[in-house]
Amino acid sequence: MSQKQKQSDRDSVPTFGVTATAETATKTTVEAREFEFVIDEPEELGGENDGPNPVEYLAGSLAGCLNVVCHLVADEYGIEIDDLEFEIEGALDPSKLLEDAAGVRAGYQGLRVEITATTDADEATLQKWLAAVEDRCPVTDNVANETPVAIELTTR
């Protein structure tokens, strides 16, 4: 593949997105391609508990993306993976959400990801595999690095 062709491929980066509608103050219906899902808060946070909350979806998105990249990189490295499980959790201080608390992040303070893999690959290969997975996972990149977000308001 020529350099010109590689650059051309990078210039045509696909775009992914969703549309969403507020059903209540805590419940949102989201459409992505031909799929629809509900985001809601648990009852103790004023919701109806009709679906995971936004930060749970973020953790789930990370698990889903890691799953794809883990298998992709394992195939490239010739690693056979019989089973993968992900446990992701993080602390979130609600004080910024509930009031303008100075010096407190609104989001996760950090995320801990535990991947349990059933494989016969040796430890050195698995460490190289894990480093490549961390480097290549789009959701890990978005969570670990600043991603510009432009929020615009349209009124009707």
TrEMBL record:
Residues 1-27 are annotated as: Disordered. Residues 1-12 have a biased composition (Basic and acidic residues). InterPro entries: KH_dom-like_a/b, OsmC/Ohr_fam, OsmC/Ohr_hydroprdx_reductase, OsmC/Ohrsf. Residues 18-27 have a biased composition (Low complexity). It comes from the Archaea. SUPFAM superfamilies: OsmC-like (SSF82784). This is OsmC family protein. It comes from Halalkaliarchaeum desulfuricum.
